[in-house]
Amino acid sequence: MPSTATGMPATAHAPPPPRSLAAAGLPPRVRRTLERALSLVSTELDGGLSNLVSEFEQELFRLADHARHPGLESGYMATLRAFRANRADLVPRFLLALEGSVAAIRTPALPPPPAPLDTGSFGPLSLVEDTVMDEGTVLREIASRQEGRANLSLHLLGQRFGVLAATPAFDAERLPLGPQCLCRAIASAARALEIEHDARLLLYRMFDRVVMPGYARVLERLDVQLADDGILPALTFVPMRARAEPVETKEPTPVARTAEPPETPRTQADDAQRPYTAWGEPDTTDDGTDDAQSHEAAFARLQALMSGRRELLRKFQPRGEAPLPRRQLATREVSDALRQLQHQPPQSGGRSLVEIKRSLLAQARQRSGEGASLAPQDEDAFELLGMLYGHIEQEIRSEAPAAPLVRELQIPVLRAALQDHSFFTRQRHPARQLLNTVAESAANWHDDTAFDPRVQAALRSAVAFVVGNYEGDMAVFAEGNARVQAQLQTQARTAELQERRHVEAARGREKLAAARARADELMQGVVGDRRLPRFSRALLDQAWADVLTLTLLRHGEASPEADHQLAMTRRIVDASLDTAPCNDGALQSDVESALGQVGYHGEEATVIAQRLTSHRSDEDDAASRTELAMKLKARARLGEEAGTARREKPPARTPEEQAQYDHLRTLPFGTWIEFTTNQQGDMVRRRMSWYSPITDHVLFVNQRGQRTGEQSLDAVARLMATGNARVVTADRGHLVDRAWQAAMGALRSFAGRSEHRAPEATA
Question: How far apart are CA 178 and CA 166, in angstroms?
Answer without folding.
Answer: 18
